[in-house]
Amino acid sequence: xxxxxxxxxxxxxxxxxxxxxxxxxxxxxxxxxxxxxxxxxxxxxxxxxxxxxxxxxxxxxxxxxxxxxxxxxxxxxxxxxxxxxxxxxxxxxxxxxxxxxxxxxxxxxxxxxxxxxxxxxxxxxxxxxxxxxxxxxxxxxxxxxxxxxxxxxxxxxxxxxxxxxxxxxxxxxxxxxxxxxxxxxxxxxxxxxxxxxxxxxxxxxxxxxxxxxxxxxxxxxxxxxxxxxxxxxxxxxxxxxxxxxxxxx
Amino acid sequence: xxxxxxxxxxxxxxxxxxxxxxxxxxxxxxxxxxxxxxxxxxxxxxxxxxxxxxxxxxxxxxxxxxxxxxxxxxxxxxxxxxxxxxxxxxxxxxxxxxxxxxxxxxxxxxxxxxxxxxxxxxxxxxxxxxxxxxxxxxxxxxxxxxxxxxxxxxxxxxxxxxxxxxxxxxxxxxxxxxxxxxxxxxxxxxxxxxxxxxxxxxxxxxxxxxxxxxxxxxxxxxxxxxxxxxxxxxxxxxxxxxxxxxxxx
Lengths: 249, 249
Prior knowledge:
Two copies of one chain form a homodimer.
Chain A: E1 2-8, H1 15-29, E2 34-38, E3 52-53, H2 60-67, H3 71-83, H4 86-94, E4 100-104, H5 109-113, H6 117-125, E5 129-137, H7 145-162, E6 165-170, H8 185-195, H9 198-213, H10 231-244
Parallel strand pairs in A: 1-4, 1-5, 2-3, 2-4, 5-6
Helix pairs in contact in A: 2-3, 7-9, 8-9
Protein backbone atom coordinates (compact mmCIF):
# COMPACT_ATOMS: atom_id res chain seq x y z
CA UNK A 1 0.00 0.00 0.00
CA UNK A 2 1.22 3.44 -0.90
CA UNK A 3 1.02 6.53 1.26
CA UNK A 4 -0.88 9.09 -0.79
CA UNK A 5 -0.79 12.75 0.28
CA UNK A 6 -3.25 15.16 -1.32
CA UNK A 7 -2.22 18.82 -1.18
CA UNK A 8 -5.51 20.73 -1.09
CA UNK A 9 -6.23 24.42 -0.61
CA UNK A 10 -7.86 27.50 -2.07
CA UNK A 11 -6.39 29.20 -5.12
CA UNK A 12 -3.13 30.89 -4.21
CA UNK A 13 -2.51 29.01 -0.96
CA UNK A 14 0.68 27.49 -2.34
CA UNK A 15 -0.25 23.84 -3.00
CA UNK A 16 2.23 23.42 -5.86
CA UNK A 17 5.21 24.91 -4.07
CA UNK A 18 4.47 22.90 -0.92
CA UNK A 19 4.14 19.69 -2.96
CA UNK A 20 7.56 20.40 -4.50
CA UNK A 21 9.20 21.35 -1.20
CA UNK A 22 7.83 18.33 0.67
CA UNK A 23 8.92 16.01 -2.14
CA UNK A 24 12.40 17.51 -2.11
CA UNK A 25 12.56 17.12 1.67
CA UNK A 26 11.54 13.43 1.42
CA UNK A 27 14.15 12.81 -1.28
CA UNK A 28 16.84 14.43 0.83
CA UNK A 29 16.38 11.88 3.60
CA UNK A 30 15.44 8.66 1.79
CA UNK A 31 16.09 6.75 -1.41
CA UNK A 32 13.37 6.91 -4.13
CA UNK A 33 10.69 7.82 -1.70
CA UNK A 34 8.29 10.16 -3.46
CA UNK A 35 6.47 10.34 -6.76
CA UNK A 36 4.57 13.40 -7.96
CA UNK A 37 1.11 13.52 -9.52
CA UNK A 38 -0.16 16.82 -10.93
CA UNK A 39 -3.96 17.04 -11.15
CA UNK A 40 -4.17 20.71 -12.14
CA UNK A 41 -5.03 21.05 -15.85
CA UNK A 42 -4.61 24.83 -15.62
CA UNK A 43 -1.12 25.10 -14.14
CA UNK A 44 1.49 26.89 -16.28
CA UNK A 45 4.72 25.99 -14.49
CA UNK A 46 5.61 23.20 -12.06
CA UNK A 47 8.67 23.40 -9.79
CA UNK A 48 8.87 19.56 -9.75
CA UNK A 49 8.90 16.94 -12.52
CA UNK A 50 5.56 15.11 -12.35
CA UNK A 51 5.57 11.32 -12.77
CA UNK A 52 1.95 11.63 -13.84
CA UNK A 53 0.58 14.88 -15.24
CA UNK A 54 -3.12 15.50 -15.94
CA UNK A 55 -2.01 17.92 -18.67
CA UNK A 56 -1.00 14.92 -20.78
CA UNK A 57 -4.77 14.28 -21.02
CA UNK A 58 -6.31 17.75 -20.87
CA UNK A 59 -5.33 21.38 -20.40
CA UNK A 60 -7.54 24.37 -19.63
CA UNK A 61 -5.96 26.31 -22.49
CA UNK A 62 -6.91 23.64 -25.07
CA UNK A 63 -10.44 23.45 -23.66
CA UNK A 64 -10.85 27.25 -23.90
CA UNK A 65 -9.87 27.12 -27.58
CA UNK A 66 -11.64 23.91 -28.55
CA UNK A 67 -14.99 24.70 -26.89
CA UNK A 68 -14.83 28.50 -27.13
CA UNK A 69 -15.21 28.78 -23.35
CA UNK A 70 -14.13 31.48 -20.93
CA UNK A 71 -11.83 30.63 -18.00
CA UNK A 72 -14.67 29.67 -15.61
CA UNK A 73 -16.39 27.33 -18.03
CA UNK A 74 -13.10 25.87 -19.26
CA UNK A 75 -11.93 25.03 -15.72
CA UNK A 76 -15.14 23.10 -15.03
CA UNK A 77 -15.12 21.39 -18.43
CA UNK A 78 -11.49 20.32 -18.13
CA UNK A 79 -12.12 18.76 -14.74
CA UNK A 80 -15.07 16.85 -16.21
CA UNK A 81 -12.85 15.62 -19.02
CA UNK A 82 -10.13 14.67 -16.51
CA UNK A 83 -12.62 12.34 -14.77
CA UNK A 84 -12.49 10.00 -17.77
CA UNK A 85 -8.79 9.34 -17.24
CA UNK A 86 -8.93 8.43 -13.56
CA UNK A 87 -8.62 4.67 -14.17
CA UNK A 88 -5.59 5.20 -16.35
CA UNK A 89 -4.03 7.53 -13.77
CA UNK A 90 -4.68 5.03 -10.97
CA UNK A 91 -3.12 2.20 -12.95
CA UNK A 92 -0.03 4.24 -13.64
CA UNK A 93 0.18 5.47 -10.05
CA UNK A 94 -0.01 1.91 -8.69
CA UNK A 95 3.12 1.05 -10.66
CA UNK A 96 5.18 4.02 -9.49
CA UNK A 97 8.24 2.73 -7.61
CA UNK A 98 7.73 4.99 -4.60
CA UNK A 99 6.07 4.46 -1.24
CA UNK A 100 4.95 8.12 -1.11
CA UNK A 101 2.73 9.61 -3.81
CA UNK A 102 2.36 13.39 -3.56
CA UNK A 103 -0.74 14.68 -5.33
CA UNK A 104 -0.96 18.35 -6.33
CA UNK A 105 -4.72 18.99 -6.68
CA UNK A 106 -6.41 21.51 -9.03
CA UNK A 107 -5.63 25.22 -8.55
CA UNK A 108 -9.23 25.91 -7.61
CA UNK A 109 -9.99 23.74 -4.58
CA UNK A 110 -13.75 23.74 -5.22
CA UNK A 111 -13.24 21.92 -8.52
CA UNK A 112 -11.78 19.07 -6.50
CA UNK A 113 -14.20 19.18 -3.57
CA UNK A 114 -17.51 20.16 -5.15
CA UNK A 115 -17.47 18.40 -8.50
CA UNK A 116 -17.28 14.65 -9.08
CA UNK A 117 -13.54 14.68 -9.65
CA UNK A 118 -12.19 14.75 -6.07
CA UNK A 119 -14.56 12.23 -4.47
CA UNK A 120 -14.08 9.85 -7.43
CA UNK A 121 -10.31 10.26 -7.35
CA UNK A 122 -10.25 9.38 -3.65
CA UNK A 123 -12.61 6.43 -4.09
CA UNK A 124 -10.36 4.96 -6.77
CA UNK A 125 -7.06 5.75 -5.08
CA UNK A 126 -8.16 4.03 -1.87
CA UNK A 127 -7.41 0.82 -3.75
CA UNK A 128 -3.81 1.88 -4.22
CA UNK A 129 -3.05 3.31 -0.84
CA UNK A 130 -3.90 5.11 2.33
CA UNK A 131 -4.84 8.72 1.62
CA UNK A 132 -4.34 11.81 3.77
CA UNK A 133 -5.33 15.33 2.79
CA UNK A 134 -3.15 18.29 3.72
CA UNK A 135 -5.40 21.37 3.76
CA UNK A 136 -3.40 24.53 3.19
CA UNK A 137 -4.21 28.12 3.99
CA UNK A 138 -2.23 31.27 3.49
CA UNK A 139 -1.17 33.10 6.71
CA UNK A 140 -2.34 36.41 5.24
CA UNK A 141 -5.82 34.97 5.79
CA UNK A 142 -4.99 34.20 9.43
CA UNK A 143 -5.32 37.64 10.94
CA UNK A 144 -7.98 36.83 13.51
CA UNK A 145 -8.73 33.91 15.81
CA UNK A 146 -11.88 33.46 13.74
CA UNK A 147 -9.71 32.73 10.69
CA UNK A 148 -8.11 29.75 12.43
CA UNK A 149 -11.59 28.43 13.14
CA UNK A 150 -12.33 28.83 9.40
CA UNK A 151 -9.23 26.81 8.51
CA UNK A 152 -10.23 24.07 10.92
CA UNK A 153 -13.78 24.09 9.59
CA UNK A 154 -12.49 23.89 6.01
CA UNK A 155 -10.39 20.89 7.07
CA UNK A 156 -13.44 19.22 8.58
CA UNK A 157 -15.47 19.89 5.44
CA UNK A 158 -12.69 18.41 3.29
CA UNK A 159 -12.48 15.39 5.56
CA UNK A 160 -16.22 14.70 5.42
CA UNK A 161 -16.54 15.42 1.71
CA UNK A 162 -13.66 13.15 0.67
CA UNK A 163 -13.79 10.64 3.51
CA UNK A 164 -10.10 10.97 4.35
CA UNK A 165 -8.07 12.11 7.33
CA UNK A 166 -6.78 15.64 6.99
CA UNK A 167 -4.05 17.81 8.48
CA UNK A 168 -4.56 21.58 8.28
CA UNK A 169 -1.37 23.54 7.68
CA UNK A 170 -0.52 27.20 7.46
CA UNK A 171 1.84 27.76 4.57
CA UNK A 172 4.25 30.61 3.82
CA UNK A 173 5.37 30.63 7.45
CA UNK A 174 8.40 32.63 6.35
CA UNK A 175 6.05 35.58 5.75
CA UNK A 176 4.84 35.82 9.36
CA UNK A 177 6.11 35.78 12.91
CA UNK A 178 5.33 32.47 14.62
CA UNK A 179 3.77 34.26 17.57
CA UNK A 180 1.24 35.98 15.34
CA UNK A 181 -0.45 32.69 14.55
CA UNK A 182 -2.79 31.36 17.23
CA UNK A 183 -2.00 27.69 17.08
CA UNK A 184 -2.38 26.98 20.77
CA UNK A 185 -5.94 25.97 21.65
CA UNK A 186 -6.03 27.88 24.94
CA UNK A 187 -4.74 31.13 23.44
CA UNK A 188 -7.05 30.68 20.47
CA UNK A 189 -10.10 30.42 22.74
CA UNK A 190 -9.04 33.40 24.81
CA UNK A 191 -8.57 35.54 21.71
CA UNK A 192 -11.83 34.27 20.25
CA UNK A 193 -13.78 35.35 23.32
CA UNK A 194 -12.19 38.81 23.10
CA UNK A 195 -12.78 39.16 19.40
CA UNK A 196 -16.18 37.62 18.72
CA UNK A 197 -19.10 38.48 20.87
CA UNK A 198 -22.42 36.70 20.79
CA UNK A 199 -23.45 33.89 18.50
CA UNK A 200 -20.36 33.73 16.26
CA UNK A 201 -18.08 33.33 19.26
CA UNK A 202 -20.28 30.63 20.79
CA UNK A 203 -20.53 28.67 17.55
CA UNK A 204 -16.77 28.89 17.04
CA UNK A 205 -16.16 27.54 20.56
CA UNK A 206 -18.46 24.60 19.88
CA UNK A 207 -16.68 23.83 16.61
CA UNK A 208 -13.37 23.74 18.49
CA UNK A 209 -14.90 21.42 21.12
CA UNK A 210 -16.19 19.09 18.42
CA UNK A 211 -12.82 18.94 16.66
CA UNK A 212 -10.96 18.40 19.94
CA UNK A 213 -13.28 15.56 20.96
CA UNK A 214 -12.38 13.68 17.80
CA UNK A 215 -8.78 14.88 17.81
CA UNK A 216 -9.37 16.41 14.39
CA UNK A 217 -7.33 19.35 13.17
CA UNK A 218 -6.03 19.96 16.67
CA UNK A 219 -2.40 20.50 15.67
CA UNK A 220 -1.77 23.01 12.89
CA UNK A 221 1.82 22.94 11.65
CA UNK A 222 3.30 26.14 10.34
CA UNK A 223 5.22 25.26 7.18
CA UNK A 224 7.25 27.08 4.57
CA UNK A 225 7.93 25.81 1.08
CA UNK A 226 10.65 28.47 0.81
CA UNK A 227 12.72 27.76 3.93
CA UNK A 228 11.68 24.15 4.58
CA UNK A 229 10.40 25.10 8.01
CA UNK A 230 7.83 22.73 9.51
CA UNK A 231 8.26 20.02 6.87
CA UNK A 232 9.65 17.58 9.44
CA UNK A 233 6.69 18.25 11.73
CA UNK A 234 4.33 17.66 8.80
CA UNK A 235 6.15 14.42 7.94
CA UNK A 236 5.89 13.19 11.53
CA UNK A 237 2.18 13.93 11.62
CA UNK A 238 1.57 12.16 8.30
CA UNK A 239 3.69 9.22 9.42
CA UNK A 240 1.72 8.93 12.66
CA UNK A 241 -1.59 8.71 10.80
CA UNK A 242 -0.27 6.39 8.08
CA UNK A 243 1.14 4.03 10.73
CA UNK A 244 -1.98 4.05 12.84
CA UNK A 245 -3.92 3.44 9.63
CA UNK A 246 -6.59 5.57 11.25
CA UNK A 247 -9.06 5.75 8.42
CA UNK A 248 -12.09 7.95 9.14
CA UNK A 249 -14.47 5.88 7.03
CA UNK B 1 -30.93 50.54 4.22
CA UNK B 2 -30.86 48.19 1.27
CA UNK B 3 -31.40 44.45 1.35
CA UNK B 4 -28.29 42.94 -0.20
CA UNK B 5 -28.37 39.29 -1.31
CA UNK B 6 -25.07 37.58 -2.16
CA UNK B 7 -25.40 34.53 -4.40
CA UNK B 8 -22.47 32.33 -3.42
CA UNK B 9 -21.58 28.80 -4.48
CA UNK B 10 -18.92 26.58 -6.02
CA UNK B 11 -18.13 26.85 -9.74
CA UNK B 12 -21.01 25.47 -11.77
CA UNK B 13 -23.65 25.61 -9.02
CA UNK B 14 -25.73 28.11 -11.00
CA UNK B 15 -25.17 31.41 -9.15
CA UNK B 16 -25.66 33.55 -12.26
CA UNK B 17 -28.85 31.89 -13.45
CA UNK B 18 -30.33 31.97 -9.94
CA UNK B 19 -29.44 35.68 -9.58
CA UNK B 20 -31.24 36.36 -12.88
CA UNK B 21 -34.27 34.21 -12.03
CA UNK B 22 -34.69 35.67 -8.56
CA UNK B 23 -34.39 39.20 -9.94
CA UNK B 24 -36.99 38.45 -12.60
CA UNK B 25 -39.29 37.00 -9.94
CA UNK B 26 -38.91 40.14 -7.77
CA UNK B 27 -39.63 42.40 -10.76
CA UNK B 28 -42.75 40.40 -11.62
CA UNK B 29 -44.32 41.19 -8.27
CA UNK B 30 -43.07 44.68 -7.38
CA UNK B 31 -42.12 47.98 -8.98
CA UNK B 32 -38.38 48.71 -9.36
CA UNK B 33 -37.41 46.31 -6.68
CA UNK B 34 -34.08 44.78 -7.65
CA UNK B 35 -30.73 45.94 -8.96
CA UNK B 36 -28.01 43.57 -10.17
CA UNK B 37 -24.31 43.67 -9.34
CA UNK B 38 -21.96 41.31 -11.16
CA UNK B 39 -18.71 40.59 -9.29
CA UNK B 40 -17.38 37.89 -11.62
CA UNK B 41 -14.55 39.25 -13.78
CA UNK B 42 -14.43 35.95 -15.70
CA UNK B 43 -18.04 35.56 -16.78
CA UNK B 44 -18.67 35.48 -20.54
CA UNK B 45 -22.43 35.90 -20.72
CA UNK B 46 -24.97 37.27 -18.23
CA UNK B 47 -28.71 36.50 -18.53
CA UNK B 48 -29.50 39.83 -16.77
CA UNK B 49 -28.40 43.41 -17.36
CA UNK B 50 -26.08 44.38 -14.50
CA UNK B 51 -26.48 47.84 -12.96
CA UNK B 52 -22.88 47.51 -11.79
CA UNK B 53 -20.45 45.17 -13.53
CA UNK B 54 -16.96 44.38 -12.24
CA UNK B 55 -15.93 43.80 -15.87
CA UNK B 56 -16.05 47.56 -16.40
CA UNK B 57 -12.98 47.62 -14.15
CA UNK B 58 -11.24 44.32 -14.87
CA UNK B 59 -11.72 41.11 -16.85
CA UNK B 60 -9.87 37.81 -16.53
CA UNK B 61 -9.22 37.79 -20.28
CA UNK B 62 -7.44 41.16 -20.19
CA UNK B 63 -5.40 40.08 -17.17
CA UNK B 64 -4.32 36.85 -18.94
CA UNK B 65 -3.08 38.92 -21.90
CA UNK B 66 -1.61 41.86 -20.03
CA UNK B 67 0.31 39.85 -17.41
CA UNK B 68 0.91 36.70 -19.50
CA UNK B 69 -0.83 34.58 -16.87
CA UNK B 70 -2.63 31.24 -17.13
CA UNK B 71 -6.28 30.96 -16.03
CA UNK B 72 -5.46 30.15 -12.36
CA UNK B 73 -3.09 33.07 -11.93
CA UNK B 74 -5.32 35.45 -13.89
CA UNK B 75 -8.37 34.64 -11.74
CA UNK B 76 -6.45 35.47 -8.56
CA UNK B 77 -4.85 38.59 -10.05
CA UNK B 78 -8.15 39.95 -11.36
CA UNK B 79 -9.80 39.54 -7.96
CA UNK B 80 -6.88 41.42 -6.38
CA UNK B 81 -7.31 44.21 -8.93
CA UNK B 82 -11.09 44.25 -8.31
CA UNK B 83 -10.41 45.02 -4.62
CA UNK B 84 -9.22 48.48 -5.58
CA UNK B 85 -12.62 49.39 -6.98
CA UNK B 86 -14.71 48.39 -3.98
CA UNK B 87 -15.22 51.96 -2.75
CA UNK B 88 -16.39 53.05 -6.16
CA UNK B 89 -18.73 50.05 -6.43
CA UNK B 90 -20.16 50.74 -2.98
CA UNK B 91 -20.77 54.39 -3.81
CA UNK B 92 -22.59 53.47 -7.00
CA UNK B 93 -24.56 50.69 -5.28
CA UNK B 94 -25.74 53.08 -2.55
CA UNK B 95 -27.32 55.28 -5.22
CA UNK B 96 -29.18 52.49 -7.02
CA UNK B 97 -32.92 53.18 -6.85
CA UNK B 98 -33.83 49.70 -5.61
CA UNK B 99 -34.43 48.27 -2.16
CA UNK B 100 -33.02 44.87 -3.21
CA UNK B 101 -29.47 44.53 -4.52
CA UNK B 102 -28.68 41.10 -5.96
CA UNK B 103 -24.97 40.34 -6.04
CA UNK B 104 -23.62 37.64 -8.34
CA UNK B 105 -20.28 36.64 -6.78
CA UNK B 106 -17.18 35.33 -8.64
CA UNK B 107 -17.50 32.05 -10.54
CA UNK B 108 -14.98 30.41 -8.23
CA UNK B 109 -16.39 30.70 -4.71
CA UNK B 110 -12.99 30.39 -3.04
CA UNK B 111 -11.84 33.65 -4.67
CA UNK B 112 -14.63 35.35 -2.76
CA UNK B 113 -14.27 33.45 0.52
CA UNK B 114 -10.54 32.84 0.84
CA UNK B 115 -8.99 35.97 -0.59
CA UNK B 116 -9.42 39.53 0.72
CA UNK B 117 -12.15 40.38 -1.77
CA UNK B 118 -15.24 38.81 -0.17
CA UNK B 119 -14.60 39.83 3.47
CA UNK B 120 -13.72 43.37 2.35
CA UNK B 121 -16.77 43.59 0.09
CA UNK B 122 -19.03 42.58 2.97
CA UNK B 123 -17.34 44.94 5.42
CA UNK B 124 -17.90 47.87 3.06
CA UNK B 125 -21.41 46.90 1.98
CA UNK B 126 -22.58 46.65 5.59
CA UNK B 127 -22.65 50.45 5.46
CA UNK B 128 -25.16 50.35 2.62
CA UNK B 129 -27.44 47.61 3.75
CA UNK B 130 -28.22 44.37 5.51
CA UNK B 131 -26.47 41.46 3.81
CA UNK B 132 -27.59 37.84 3.51
CA UNK B 133 -25.66 35.13 1.69
CA UNK B 134 -27.47 32.48 -0.33
CA UNK B 135 -25.19 29.44 -0.52
CA UNK B 136 -25.97 27.32 -3.56
CA UNK B 137 -25.19 23.70 -4.28
CA UNK B 138 -26.01 21.56 -7.26
CA UNK B 139 -28.36 18.60 -6.56
CA UNK B 140 -26.08 16.27 -8.51
CA UNK B 141 -23.77 16.68 -5.51
CA UNK B 142 -26.60 15.73 -3.12
CA UNK B 143 -26.62 11.98 -3.59
CA UNK B 144 -26.01 11.01 0.03
CA UNK B 145 -27.16 12.29 3.41
CA UNK B 146 -23.52 13.17 3.99
CA UNK B 147 -23.71 15.63 1.07
CA UNK B 148 -26.47 17.61 2.79
CA UNK B 149 -24.24 17.83 5.85
CA UNK B 150 -21.49 19.18 3.55
CA UNK B 151 -23.86 21.85 2.19
CA UNK B 152 -24.82 22.89 5.70
CA UNK B 153 -21.19 22.94 6.79
CA UNK B 154 -20.27 25.04 3.74
CA UNK B 155 -23.04 27.45 4.72
CA UNK B 156 -21.69 27.67 8.25
CA UNK B 157 -18.17 28.28 6.96
CA UNK B 158 -19.47 31.05 4.67
CA UNK B 159 -21.40 32.60 7.53
CA UNK B 160 -18.39 32.63 9.87
CA UNK B 161 -15.94 33.76 7.19
CA UNK B 162 -18.06 36.69 5.97
CA UNK B 163 -19.95 37.45 9.19
CA UNK B 164 -23.37 37.35 7.52
CA UNK B 165 -26.50 35.27 7.84
CA UNK B 166 -26.80 32.59 5.20
CA UNK B 167 -29.49 30.45 3.62
CA UNK B 168 -28.35 27.21 1.97
CA UNK B 169 -30.30 26.32 -1.19
CA UNK B 170 -30.28 23.41 -3.57
CA UNK B 171 -30.48 24.71 -7.11
CA UNK B 172 -31.55 23.01 -10.34
CA UNK B 173 -34.49 21.43 -8.52
CA UNK B 174 -36.02 20.71 -11.93
CA UNK B 175 -33.31 18.11 -12.44
CA UNK B 176 -34.31 15.96 -9.45
CA UNK B 177 -37.34 14.48 -7.74
CA UNK B 178 -38.18 16.38 -4.56
CA UNK B 179 -38.29 13.16 -2.55
CA UNK B 180 -34.71 12.36 -3.48
CA UNK B 181 -33.41 15.29 -1.48
CA UNK B 182 -33.21 14.77 2.26
CA UNK B 183 -34.35 18.13 3.51
CA UNK B 184 -36.24 16.89 6.54
CA UNK B 185 -33.99 16.74 9.61
CA UNK B 186 -35.44 13.50 10.95
CA UNK B 187 -35.13 11.64 7.65
CA UNK B 188 -31.67 13.08 7.16
CA UNK B 189 -30.49 11.73 10.52
CA UNK B 190 -32.03 8.32 9.88
CA UNK B 191 -30.34 8.04 6.50
CA UNK B 192 -27.08 9.34 7.95
CA UNK B 193 -27.04 6.62 10.59
CA UNK B 194 -27.64 3.99 7.88
CA UNK B 195 -25.03 5.40 5.55
CA UNK B 196 -22.13 6.50 7.74
CA UNK B 197 -20.82 4.26 10.43
CA UNK B 198 -18.37 5.29 13.09
CA UNK B 199 -16.70 8.63 13.46
CA UNK B 200 -17.99 10.35 10.30
CA UNK B 201 -21.60 9.61 11.23
CA UNK B 202 -21.09 10.83 14.80
CA UNK B 203 -19.40 14.05 13.71
CA UNK B 204 -22.14 14.71 11.16
CA UNK B 205 -24.82 14.29 13.84
CA UNK B 206 -23.04 16.76 16.08
CA UNK B 207 -22.78 19.29 13.26
CA UNK B 208 -26.54 19.00 12.73
CA UNK B 209 -27.13 19.47 16.47
CA UNK B 210 -24.95 22.58 16.50
CA UNK B 211 -26.74 24.10 13.50
CA UNK B 212 -30.17 23.28 14.93
CA UNK B 213 -29.31 24.85 18.29
CA UNK B 214 -28.57 28.15 16.57
CA UNK B 215 -31.33 27.72 13.97
CA UNK B 216 -28.69 27.94 11.27
CA UNK B 217 -29.19 26.32 7.87
CA UNK B 218 -32.11 24.32 9.22
CA UNK B 219 -34.41 24.92 6.26
CA UNK B 220 -32.97 24.20 2.82
CA UNK B 221 -35.21 25.45 0.00
CA UNK B 222 -35.16 23.56 -3.26
CA UNK B 223 -35.10 26.15 -6.04
CA UNK B 224 -35.00 26.17 -9.81
CA UNK B 225 -33.79 29.06 -11.94
CA UNK B 226 -35.43 27.33 -14.91
CA UNK B 227 -38.97 26.78 -13.62
CA UNK B 228 -39.07 29.41 -10.87
CA UNK B 229 -39.80 26.72 -8.29
CA UNK B 230 -38.94 27.63 -4.71
CA UNK B 231 -38.24 31.31 -5.41
CA UNK B 232 -41.19 32.40 -3.28
CA UNK B 233 -39.97 30.22 -0.40
CA UNK B 234 -36.50 31.77 -0.78
CA UNK B 235 -38.02 35.26 -0.82
CA UNK B 236 -40.02 34.55 2.34
CA UNK B 237 -36.93 33.27 4.13
CA UNK B 238 -34.88 36.30 3.08
CA UNK B 239 -37.70 38.63 4.07
CA UNK B 240 -37.97 37.01 7.49
CA UNK B 241 -34.26 37.56 8.19
CA UNK B 242 -34.19 41.08 6.74
CA UNK B 243 -37.18 42.07 8.85
CA UNK B 244 -35.84 40.52 12.04
CA UNK B 245 -32.55 42.31 11.26
CA UNK B 246 -30.95 39.29 12.83
CA UNK B 247 -27.35 40.09 12.22
CA UNK B 248 -24.92 37.39 13.33
CA UNK B 249 -22.12 39.76 14.19
